[in-house]
Amino acid sequence: MLVKQELINKIKDYFDLNIYETKVWLALLGKGVASAGEVAEISGVPRSRTYDVLESLEKKGFAMVKIGKPVKYLGIKPNTILEKLKNNVRKEAEDKVVSLLNLKNTEEFSNIEELYKQGISPMKREDLSASLKGKSNISNYLKEVIQNAEKEVIICTNAGEVNDKKKLFRQTFEILKKGNIKIKFALSGDEDLIKAINKELDVKAKKVEIDTKFFIIDRKEILFYLSKDSNDEDVAIWINSEFFSQAFAALFDKALGGK
Fold this sequence. Notes:
CATH architecture of the largest domain: 2-Layer Sandwich
Number of strands: 10
Number of helices: 11
Largest sheet: 7 strands, mixed
Distance between the termini: 73 Å
Strand order of the largest sheet: 4-10-9-8-5-6-7
Order of helices and strands: HHEHHEEHHEHEHHEHEEEEH
Number of domains: 2
Strand content: 15-25%
CATH class of the largest domain: Alpha Beta
Shape: elongated
């Protein structure tokens, strides 16, 4: 079979097959219809293993048996396989989400929540700080602390960042508005883009010349990014310190002219 080993290895990983399954499936695709003996000859898979491999591919939906005698096999169209795998992943993800949602109602989850409370209660408030790495990890944690805001959220970032993550920021503002949380919003960057963002997200962001990214919640917690370049791996620092947060918020207010 004139298929490069590099392609075989990549197809194997993409479609979660073993090496024999990959070779046999590719042989079927190249031949169209083939007997077990022909598949063994084309693929290079030992004849003694070919029947088992063909049966495995049939069960997984990568091959089917042609009606008639002698028994021959057909390879399933790659696009059909791809759609099937996509649906399987989607279904597995949906089932996992349901499972995770139900987890909150279990005794085990209550137990680990209690463990967390016991572990964190002796700590001083100002001792609570942590570093976060990765866009999704930072976004998820930020969403959590914002949802727990009681009075005010201060957001300072750049217009390009907001424009790239409109959906996330739209959800954030909806959460804050529903909770009657005061929003102080400042953006650096292109003025026309800021105006467009204000209109699209129905907010009143002030233009600032401070090119930074930070979020202050109730002047008690602050999360700020260590890098403004989205090409780098995102790293942020979260600090639960009323003293530090109030000082940072005061500087922000001053930058906005006391507004």
